[in-house]
Structure formats: C-alpha cells, structure tokens
Design a protein that fits this description.
Elements (H helix, E strand, L loop, with lengths): L6 H15 L4 H31 L1
C-alpha cells in the first residue's frame, strides 16, 4: 500500500495530520477508522454468506 511513498511523503502527511487535528484527536480518529473497517469487512462477509445460502437453495 505504501510502496509508492517514501519516508518524506509519509512524514509530511503525518505532520499535516498533527497540525489539522492535534495530537489528542489522532488516536480517536484512528480508532474510528479501525471500527469502520471492521464493520465493513463484517458486512462483506455477511453478504458473501447470504449469497452462498441463496446459491445452495
């Protein structure tokens, strides 16, 4: 995922995030993104099992 980014690009992105959101808000944002990804993966898995059940019938 980060194969095309060098150290400087990642450092600049992190610096911009720190300036925009502050050090206290970043863990909350990361936690929210993690929960969202978890729910999205669960929904995809549930949809896949639903489709498999329809095919089996």
């Amino acid at each position: 995922m980060f194969a095309n980014f060098g150290f400087m690009e990642i450092a600049i992105i992190v610096l911009i995030l720190l300036v925009l959101f502050g050090a206290k808000k970043i863990p909350e944002l990361a936690q929210g993104i993690g929960k969202g990804m978890k729910e999205f993966k669960k929904a995809l898995k549930d949809e896949d099992t639903d489709q498999n059940k329809k095919i089996d019938k």
